Amino acid sequence: MSDAVSDDNSTVVLTDVTLATMVAGGQPYGLIEDGVLAISGDRIAYAGTAADLPSRMQSWPSESQHGMLATPALVDCHTHMVYGGNRAREFELRLLGASYEEIAKAGGGILSTVSATRAASEDDLLDAALPRIDSFIDEGAGTVEIKSGYGLDLETELKMLRVARRIGRERPVRIETSFLAAHAIPPEYKGNADGYIDWIVREILPAAASEGLVDAVDAFCETIAFNPIQVATLFDAAVKLGLKVKLHAEQLSNMGGTALAAGYKALSADHLEYLDEQGVEAMAANGTVAVLLPGAFYTLRETKFPPLDLLRQAGVPIAVATDCNPGSSPMFSPLLAVNMACTLFRMTPEEALAGITREGARALGCLDEVGTLEVGKRADIAIWDVETPAELAYRFGINPLARRIFGGNV
Ligand code: NIG
Ligand code: FE
């Protein structure tokens, strides 16, 4: 990030706006009343009080925001929004008493989405995913992470990642991809998880990486998925390719995956309901972000809470995301994730909003570009028809977005 922005021919000054800059360390929410935002090209040229607007920007065209609130465009750092089919039947089964693990062991769950995703063409997957991303954009998202992981074979994993990249070309949104072939054991490798990891490392990951489809490598460390040794084998391969890692860890049980991931300087460890103190310390020591996913907690009616107080005390950065997926979190609303992070996990509205802006960006390794309203960052901005930032966390089922600016374009 540069600290100065050269004037672009497309400049605008947004006046009469309250800024929740989400810059840490000062006012709560980085709040600036009587604020002004100046945009030059795709960059923020000024974010501060009206009184201090640099004189050369005072002649730029201006637009009043009528006292509304500006935040960074939202950053959802954990979704699985490219998939075929849906899992409404599984939802019914769970309400008739089956557990998420039982359904997975019986070949349903993730594997039922795998069958539908393999059967779908690239265009079908794109057509199904566009309304999903639109619902995020309509709620002010500017950056969204999308994982593979419903292919579990060479062809379909690459197909999913190509669709994720195409979403970023078809819609005004930045997409970060995560390679999640180690999400479940495919039917072809039943009872042979080691063999599947070997195939991923030898063929699938190198192919995906060489096509430029992988921004980070993810895995699911769990009794119904992969153990820490298998995850380490995958992470070693990722490191050799120069790729960052992250992990679904401690969601249903404590496998020690978080500490392992932190040892690889993982960008994030996600879910974390069963995380222990040792895992928290490992995250703190390595700068690994804790990504909390209240939609999955809610859908699975989990009763064990992620150790929020331990994470706070250790100073671990905490992000919040939707986990948008067809099974454990069929949620298409980032604002609902913010509300649930407060109501279910007892995060403060400031923590939750930071979790889906600044900390979400940190979890994706793109805090230099997005996540706060600061000079030099991308002009990805959400303008809300609310008076205070806490209102974004407090209501649910209503969308107060007035306008979204993406790369300087309304
Ligand atoms: O983040 N935990 C594993 N993966 C997903 C669930 C995916 C699915 O059920 O389809 C999650 O919750
Ligand atoms: Fe997930």
From TrEMBL:
- Catalytic reaction list: 4-imidazolone-5-propanoate + H2O = N-formimidoyl-L-glutamate
Keywords, comma-separated and alphabetical: Cytoplasm, Histidine metabolism, Hydrolase, Iron, Metal-binding, Zinc
Q: Which CDD domains match?
A: Imidazolone-5PH (cd01296)
The residues that the entry says bind Fe(3+) are H78, H80, H248, D323
* All residue ranges annotated as the Amidohydrolase-related domain in the record: 70-392
> Where on this chain does Zn(2+) bind?
H78, H80, H248, D323
Annotated GO molecular function terms are: imidazolonepropionase activity; iron ion binding; zinc ion binding
**One cellular-component annotation, GO:** cytoplasm
User: Which GO terms fall under biological process for this protein?
Assistant: L-histidine catabolic process to glutamate and formamide; L-histidine catabolic process to glutamate and formate
Its main localization is cytoplasm
Which EC class does it fall in? Answer: hydrolase
Which residues take part in binding 4-imidazolone-5-propanoate? R87, Y150, H183, Q251, S328
Give the location in the cell. Cytoplasm
Q: Tell me which InterPro entries the record gives.
A: Amidohydro-rel (IPR006680), HutI (IPR005920), Metal-dep_hydrolase_composite (IPR011059), Metal_Hydrolase (IPR032466)
Task: Cite the EC number.
Answer: 3.5.2.7
How many cofactors are bound and how? Binds 1 zinc or iron ion per subunit.
- Which metal ions or organic cofactors does this protein require, according to UniProt? Zn(2+); Fe(3+)
Q: What family is this?
A: Belongs to the metallo-dependent hydrolases superfamily. HutI family.
Q: What PANTHER family does the entry give? A: IMIDAZOLONEPROPIONASE, IMIDAZOLONEPROPIONASE-RELATED
Free-text function comment from the UniProt entry: Catalyzes the hydrolytic cleavage of the carbon-nitrogen bond in imidazolone-5-propanoate to yield N-formimidoyl-L-glutamate. It is the third step in the universal histidine degradation pathway.
Task: Spell out the protein name for this chain.
Answer: Imidazolonepropionase
